[in-house]
Amino acid sequence: MESLVRFLNNMDKKIKNGPFKIFSPMYGALNTMLFTPGHGTTTGPHIRDSIDMKRFMGIVIFALIPSILVGSYNVGLQAGVEGLFAAFMFGFLKLLPIIVVTYAVGLGWEMIFGHINGHDIHEGFLVTGILLPLTLPPTIPLWQVAVAVSFGTVIGKEVFGGTGMNLLNPALTARAFLFFTYPGDISGDSVWVAVDGFTGATPLAAAASASGSAVEAMNAAGFTLNKMFFGFVPGSIGETSSIAILIGAALLLITGVASWRIMLATTLGAYGMALLVQFFGGDVVGGIRTLPAHYHLVMGGFLFGTVFMATDPVSAAGTDFGKWIYGFLIGFMVILIRTFNPAYPEGMMLAILLGNVFSPLIDHFVIQANIKRRLNYGK
Amino acid sequence: MGVFNLKKGHNIHLQGAAERHVDKAHKTSAVAVQPIDFRGLRPGVKVEPGDKVKRGSLIFVDKRRPNIVFRSPSAGTVREIIRGERRVIQRVIIETTADSAESFKAYSRDEISKFSTEKAKEVLLNSGLWPALRQRPFNKIAEQDKSPKSIFISAVDSAPLQAESDFILAGREKDFQLGIDLLAKLTDGKINLSVSASTKEFFVNTEGVELHEFSGPHPAGNVGVQIHHIDRIVAGNIVWHISPRHVAQIGSFLKKGEYPGAKTYALTGSELTNNLYIAGTEGALVSDLVSETLSAQTQRVISGNVLTGKQSRPNGFVGFYDDMITVIPELSGRRFFGWLQLGLSANSFWPMFLSKLTPSKKLAPTTDMNGEERAFVSTGEYEKVVPMDILPVHLCKAILVEDVELMEKLGIYEVAPEDFALCSYICPSKIEFGDIIEHGIITMEKEG
Prior knowledge:
The structure holds 2 protein chains of 2 kinds.
Chain A: H1 2-17, H2 24-34, H3 53-78, H4 84-117, H5 124-134, H6 142-154, H7 170-181, H8 183-186, H9 203-208, H10 214-220, H11 225-230, H12 242-254, H13 260-285, H14 293-298, H15 302-309, H16 320-340, H17 348-376
Helix pairs in contact in A: 1-2, 3-4, 3-5, 3-12, 4-5, 4-6, 5-7, 6-7, 7-17, 12-15, 13-16, 16-17
Chain B: E1 2-5, E2 22-24, E3 30-33, E4 43-45, E5 52-53, E6 58-62, E7 69-71, E8 76-83, E9 89-96, H1 109-113, H2 117-127, E10 134-136, E11 140-141, E12 151-155, H3 165-168, H4 173-183, E13 191-195, H5 200-203, E14 210-215, H6 223-230, E15 239-242, H7 244-256, E16 262-268, E17 277-281, H8 286-289, E18 299-303, E19 310-312, E20 324-329, H9 392-400, H10 404-409, H11 421-426, H12 433-447
Helix pairs in contact in B: 4-7, 9-12
């Protein structure tokens, strides 16, 4: 072990000063992944918490494992592959190339910017690199993934100054880019099943196109609440299984990585708004507005977005009270878009991006309130 | 009596708390009077190497405010004046000899009760104990031409392994009362004395103070937190604060008319085998107090507690404001896949390690940073360890962009780096909140 550490330390010096300097951010990341950086404190506090960004982001990746497993299986299931393992392998082999392309292209950009800015590759990308593939349909062309990752990393993050400075969630920025640039490959009903020529609408699309009761239309298409909860319906790879996402959510909440305020507020916001829509619009118009509120929570990308995307600490509101407002706003917007916008059956992505855009403003008002309390003290 | 139950904060459970038993220091070979103990001080040294000094002799003065004087805690011979970068004087080392003391006028309670504010200031300035009084805003030695809104004393010992104030003051009730009597002359406002359930008994009969009881995790014992809850600083306010031990030292000076050089320290930390209290001298040499032989390579010697103490060395000296020494293991190399550890004995605020299941288990962490600096990922956790109506991340961001107006609005006048030590401790991005706050305070001072 000691000789390995010595070797790594030597390599570190060689790479930093040698012709392969450009790889130094990548090497630094690998080096500190294998062994802790080994830096001591120089000022007080003389001891530090055992947590670091690697552990922090590592927990998010662990939390995504159930979604990866169930999502892969479901891709196989939707394509008609029989057998648990065969279906899983079929789906996993669809997902893996997407993840590989995302990491390869994204890390390439991270390396270039790390080199320019003189820092190692930051752990945030490890999460972005898994999140994005899970929000895509299994049939997405890999070159589009590469273009989207480039956009998400460079425009969504690096132009703002890198991890921690970005306004928008980079994974969602990449997805939004695909959504508006190549709509044919990420929406509609021909993209969700990984078999050529086979079409299958998502439950949300089925509900949106229903002429009468949305629940009946969905049941007719085979989308029962149970199936949607377990995730055996067409949709983006990681978003379909509510149970898998909830297991991940439990891990995030127990470890304190993600904000319970945001998760709760988003859910309450969406549920409340969906109740209102059903109450006022349900009987009159038909279609998705007849959908009972709890259906919205298990359909589409709502849960995945709530648990993994809205809670991104960088792009979410930073103040405790701000998180409530931010969550409610996202929940409200997602149902608004789902039920009142005929063009997009799904609204989660846009709702979160909108929440991201508003979060500095929300924080601003919370800070102003703090200032006001301070000014009023003693008066 | 105000009662404050604070919920926010975090107690770090460490091995090596001092047992309530006092030993005598095994020797007293040298002491130091250290200008670096005092924030922003420019010393004018009044002695030269070879000079003989008594306990209470003048060693140096504050160049900007020459009536603030610093006296020797022990009789001896000036051995060396240590200078650091740009020839800044760091410490004056005195080799101790047989005790002899400068004599000052002693005062009774009656005499003190007739003091005017001017007289009280004059006596305290001349005693060499004025520097024990510190001021907020700006966390520095109190300005003698100002009149504070009130004076705060914290006898709540919440920092990791902190010396227990009721124990180090045991038997000195009269000194403490005399000190309070003098302090009462310095302000038109109140003297706020905060105690905890465990220190209450010692302080409860003190006259002339407003007693407050604080409970809750660290930093409930920080005077800044107490000021925030008792009588908050708003623009234009000045408050002073002083430690209970220094109040007793003032009392002792008044009673005897001699500079009180004796000081009891807590010897704490997992690297010391004898964790107890030791009766030594102010500015004592660490190796005079600690019976085992320490190594600067493998052990971190801290003057003060692990959160806010200053790094010292086995042959270093204890700071003027510190009444404890903490010795912990130095970082030992790089750990294999450290970020994946189960963490049975990982010290952490976060529920991400198995050690969270055994919350009362006492740990012995090293000086490992446990990571590298990263960008702010504001998670809302910092607020959980700052029991004040202050937004730590936003205050720090205002400081980083040097937005003076916003810093003021977000509460820079109320804080000192020590109030944010836990933020640095829990930070996954390893950001030095203390340094940022210090930078903010310096910026505000320059702005006037």
